[in-house]
Specification:
Helix content is about 30%, strand content about 20%. It has about 425 residues and is α+β, with helices and mostly antiparallel strands. β6 and β7 form a beta hairpin. α3 packs across α6. The protein is globular.
Amino acid sequence: MSNLTAQEIDARYQSHFGVVAGYLPTNREAVDAWQRELIAEVRAARPTAAQRGRCASVAALAALIEVDGIVRMYVEEMIRQVPAPHRTIETVEELLDALETIITTAPLYNPDPAKRNSFPMSSLFVYMMMTRAGEAAFRNGPFNDALRNILKEWCAFLDGEGSLYVLNTGEDGWLSPSAYAYNKLDEFVIPDRSAPHWGWRSFNDYFHRQIKSERRPVAGPGDPRVIVSANDGTVYRIARGVKALDRFWIKGQPYSLVNMLNAGELVERFVGGDVFQSFLSGADYHRWRAPVAGVVRHAEVVEALMFSDAESAGTDTTAGTFSQGYEASVNTRGLVYIESDDPTIGMVCVIPIGITEISSVSIQVRAGDRVEKGDELGYFSYGGSSMCLVFQPGAIDRFTVPARSGGNPDDGPPILVNAQIAAAR
C-alpha cells in the first residue's frame, strides 16, 4: 500500500471512522490545510521547544525510535510512504514535535462540519495509517505502548484546568450556539450556566458530561426480559451464533470471542451467543450503563491497540469505519461481566472499546457490586469509541431494533442508552 492513488486516498478517507463519526472533516482538503498549519506552528516553535525539552512520553517515544531499529524502520517508512501531495511531516523529528504540540493543547470546535477537526491525533495520523508501513507500525507492541503513554499524558492535560480555555461561547468554543446545538447540550446537565466555563472543571469533564435522567428513562423497569442499550449511538452490527475463534482480520471481520474476551475463563459461556455492536459519535453521551440487573462478576481494562485498521482485502476502501469488528478483538477495551438475576439471560459482557485518540476506558464498578438495569458502569474520556454487548446462547429471543441494512455504518438505526434493544426468552 505504499503507492496509494489519489482515488484510493479519497475513498479510504471518506470511510474512515473519524469522518463517519463526525470528528474528522468531511472535506479531506481541510485535513491537508490543518496539517500544513500544524507543521508551520511546529517549525516556528522549534527553538523554544528545544530549550524547554520534550514531554516525558514524547521523549520516551523518541528514545524507542532511536534504539529499536524495527520501530525506526516502520516510522520512517510510514512518513515516506504518504503520497507527496499529502505529506506535511517530512522527518521523525517533525512527527515528535507535532505530537508534543497536540498533547499540550485542547481541541477547538469548528461550526463547519466540512472543516471540523475535533480529534487532531487522528488528523495527524490519517494518511500514515493508510500506508503499508503504517499498518505495521500501529500494530507494533513497543510503538503502540509508547503511543499509549503519549495519549495518557494528553488525557491528563485534558483532565486539568489548562484545557478549560476551549470551553467558551466564541465561534470556536465548545459552548458556542453552534456547538450547543450540535452536541445537544439541552439534554445534558450543565453544572452552572452563570459560572466560568459553565461550571465544568476541565475539557474532559465537559466531554463525559452527565445526561438528564428524564431524557433517558429506563425501559421495562422490573422486567428482566427487557434488555436495554448500554449507550447512545448507532447500530453497527448484530451477529448471532458467534464462534469462539474466527479470523477477525479478514473481510467481513467476524467476531472472535477468545480475542474479544482476552482469552478469559468465561469465554465458553458465550460460544454460540450473540453480539450487539454500536458506535458513538463525538456528540453522543459518553457514559455507559448496565443493560441488565445483576451482580458484577469481573471488571477489567485490556490495554491494547488504538490506531489500527483492518486491511480486510488489499485496498478495501471500507477499512476504517468497517474496522469496528476487528477493533473489538484488538483495541483497548473494557470487560464488565454482569450475572443477571434471570438465569435464562445468565451472563452478559459489556465491552466499551476505545478507537483512536485517548481511547480512555474508565470502569466505575468492581467484582461483587450489585447493579440495577440502567446503573452507570463507566465512561469514555476524549476519543472515538464503540460498544459491544455479548450475550450467552439462548438468552435473546429477538432484537427489537433493526440491524443496519445499508453499506454505510452511519446509516444504522440510532439507539439511546436505557432504551430497549432486545427481549430475552
